[in-house]
Amino acid sequence: MKALFIYVINMLLFTTMIYAQSGNVGIGTIYPNSTLEVLGNSKTRITLNSDNSSGISSLGFKLFEGVDSYRGWLMESNLSDANASKYSMYDYSYLIGLPDNENKTEVYTVEGNQFTSNYNHKWKGTGKFDNKLSIYGDNNFSSLIFIPATVGVLEKRIEISTNYNTTANYKTTMNLNFLDFDSLNEIGIIESMYTATHFNGGAQEHKFYGDVVINSTNSPFSSLNLEVNSVNASHFIYNTSTLYNGLITYETGETYIANNGGGAYTNPLYSATSSPSLSPSGLGGSHWMFGHLQTNGLSIADVPFSTTEYDENSQISVMVGTSSIKKGINVQTNNNEITSVNIENDNDSGTALHTKGSILVNTTYKPSQDYALVVRQDSLNIPYGVNLRNGSQVASNWELYITNAGDFQLYKDTSLKGAFDNVSGNYTSTSDRRLKTNITNMGSILPSILKLLPKSYNYKTDKTKLYHGFLAQELNLLFPELVKEIPSRDQEPSTMLVDYAQISVLAIKAIQEQQELISLQNEKIAILESMIQEIKLKLDE
User: Fold this and answer.
1) pTM
2) More confident of the two residues 330 and 523
3) Angle at the Cα of 311 (from 305 to 312), degrees rounded to 5?
4) Following DSSP, what letter does each residue of 206-252 receive, concatenated?
């Protein structure tokens, strides 16, 4: 009987190919290398049959923790409902000797319908980050791929990929791409849709490729807000579009919301409407700019910008009626630090400002005569005239000024240099003793004066008019202080100028020296005449 039992056992072991070797159990192998090893010729499959457990079967991994408890992982399959089969993985604990002693925490579940091939995956987690799913990749790269459809051999893929680049500022990049992937040849052409980059140090960059559409669905209102947070408030730059009575309005502005309910306001910046009735030409729409508009370049191409009508010769045309109260362009400021109108032309050969009419400066009065330029200077309220500025060199500026008496004066660096008499037009220059230093009496200049060679000449630009004067090069040999050499602005030879006003002083000095000679000669003549008279008296005797 014992031999028969051993025979039956051996036959069963031989039939099922279950072997025991060194404490390990092998199925399909005589020499198992682990606690349980299964070896199959074609397919290796372990089946947990749940026919007698209401369709529920499980596989558990446990570790004995204490006197009466285990802890581990549990993989469970629920096939009780063929239309809603479910596979789950749990973190579980098990207490020995108590009823209902198994406590399970769901980690992952996949639900499926074998008839519709629809599957739903759920990940659950607890702790610092709830519902966290981590996807790790190799070589600093990981990706998550969605394949909603396959057309032939092409998989219609949406791919989310991440990459950490150690050679470009140590940046982390996330990409959202679309690609038709050829599963047969394993090739595909990537079309970028979105890229987010985080640089080492905290800087971020976001790029969108193609069209970005903000759909208002069933609402006539859609919005894009750019939020910037400060210590005391949240600031939003809003961009909104609204459909009202068939018209589209686009607006940009700022919304300020103070923390702790401290207040809120909305400040419009720009608005545009598609209403043709608000456009001067009856086409397109109308635009409003709120606040101060500043730009370093305004380009209006193809057709001019006109407030009333088209002008083919002007890119910006402002046409107004004949009423005296209307102004073509009116710019007003109430701040001393703000420039009302600034006109610049960086091209040296171009014209910064061109006008056919009079230019009025600091006055609304239009004189009856058509002066090209009218500058109002009120000595009671504005004690300065017209300033000619030499760049940033304030000390090199010149000022043209009119006194209450009507004299025309010249100033340099706020110092008076000369004036034109309002009656005769004569020019007088400064000669105040308080302005001078190193004052000495002039020495004899008559010998040098006698060497001067006055000339008569014509200028090459006008050979019909005769002039009298000196040649600067010759005068420079005798009186260099009267000659000044000015460099040319156009890289031409420098030009020599003569200070003719000082020549009159030299002439007076020469006359004084001649008068001294004449006085000496008169004295000698008087003595000679006296001597002659004495001789004549003696001869008469």
Assistant:
1) 0.47
2) 523
3) 100
4) EEE-S------TTSSEEEEEEEEE-SSEEEEEEEEEEEETTEEEEEE
